Amino acid sequence: MSNGDDEPAEAAEEADAADQADTDEPEATTPTLPDEATEESLTEYLDEIETALEDAGTEAALDDVEALLDDAEDALAGADLPEPDEDDEDADDPRGDLEDRIAELREGLEDARGPYAEDVVEAIEASVSTLEDTEWTAEGHEDAADAVEAFVDAAAEAVDDGVDADAIETDPDAADGENVDDDDTDAGDTDDEGGADGGAGADDEAGTDDDGVAVLVAALDAVAAGIADAELDPDEDAETLADLLAATDALEEGLEDAEEWDDLETHEQLRAQGYYDVLGHYKDYPVEWAALKEHEAQGNVDMILLALDSLQSDFMERHCLEAFERMGKRGKTEASLEELLGRAGKRDRFAIRILGKMAAEEAVETLLEYVDEDSNPQLQKATFKALGEIGDGDAVGPLAEKLAMENDHVRPLAARALGLIGDTRAIDPLADAIAEDDSDDVRAAAGWALRQIGTREALEAVAEYADERSFVVQTEAEKARAALDAAATPA
């Protein structure tokens, strides 16, 4: 049985043991910059910095890690490291590997910092922009107000000495209440049908939206100001800042889920016309894109046009047009032609390309107008290829004349377009091109085109260049010679 005199002794022994344990723990060492910057020494130095980054628990410690990375970068810049063999794609690149390692550590450093009060304020400002830039439905406005109110309450709970929820107005109706005097209401203002004169209901809803948004924006501004004034420290108040960022995420989600007028009108139109009926389980987002893929697979041209007309976004426009390009002739209808011809009439190269894939003869008249657009070679390239794919003989003369144009990059496309059309009237101008053009690319394209035409005359015009110095021209000539030999050999 111990007496009271033993207790001080036991306490002293426990303290000594704790001191001994602290002494036994290895102290964290500061990475030391190597005297000689070699691949091995810099790698070891970066390993030490990585350990320091993992152990850093404060912004000051992270600042120290950043300084160490700066030193490592300076040392690497002055290091005499072997250069990789440019002819060997698999050769080691010590400098590049170390630069990548430093960049990776810097990314880890940035990820470890914060969060900061500025991050929270920036997120609040983004939500303010969403509120101001969006036209809400009545139901959506209520949902947005609920999201703001929940955020204000969460912010007040996190920063109880900086945000006073009771002092911040979040009720959108409060704005209307300040402007409406019940005593001024005149029951005689109703018309014979029992409705308010002038459609007051619609005006009231619009007023509630405008004034109510101002109330919500003021509430968020008040919270942002309170957070800024609270001077939250990223180390001491890390938990509070994390809670605030979680609250801003919830606010953003609430605003995203709230109903907008544009969303309602567009989605209702699409739903009423069966646009979403093809969807079962889907993985792609947004759902409009998922439905678009199904309509493309099923050849539902009208639904793709509906999406193109209704969903006014660059994202969906691009995917609708790409769907038509992949569908090619399957996507050709009177309605789709009208849409694409309208775009082609405005020099839209994407639409021109699609009309070629559709082999749309209806586009030839429009496309021929662009053949002589020498100042717009990109438009010419799209036009020539489309005309070749359409294959209309009316394009032979205009395209043949472009074999003499100055642009070396466009002439080959004129030659190839003539080959795709396959009209024998192109044999002479193509033969002249392979004989006289200064560009081997143009000559090879002319040879290819003559092979596509495929008559004996066309093949002979190419085959005579089998001993040509240019490999690409020689290749076309050898293929033409082989075709002639095959035709001459009895079956």
Quick take:
With 491 residues, the protein is mostly helical.
C-alpha Rg (nearest Å): 37 Å
Oligomer: single chain
Main beta sheet: none
Approximately how much beta-strand content do the residues carry? Answer: under 5%
Structure class: mainly alpha
State the end-to-end CA separation.
118 Å
- Give helix % range: 55-70%
* Cα shape: flat
Low-confidence stretches: 176-208
Number of strands: 0
Q: Would you list the SSEs in sequence order as H and E?
A: HHHHHHHHHHHHHHHHHHHHHHH
Number of helices: 23
Average pLDDT score: 83
Account of the protein in words:
- This protein has 491 residues and is mainly alpha-helical.
- Among the domains are: 30-81 and 93-113; 117-176 and 204-259, no CATH class; 391-491, Leucine-rich Repeat Variant.
- The protein is 66% helix and 0% strand.
- It is built from 23 helices and no strands.
- α5 packs parallel to α9.
- The longest helix is centred in the middle third of the chain and has 31 residues, at 200-230.
- The protein is flat.
- The relative contact order is 0.05.
- Residues 176-208 have low confidence and may be disordered.
- This is HEAT repeat domain-containing protein.
- It comes from Halorubrum glutamatedens.
- Residues 1-102, 155-209 are annotated as: Disordered.
- InterPro entries: ARM-like, ARM-type_fold, PBS_lyase_HEAT.
- It holds the Pfam family HEAT_2.
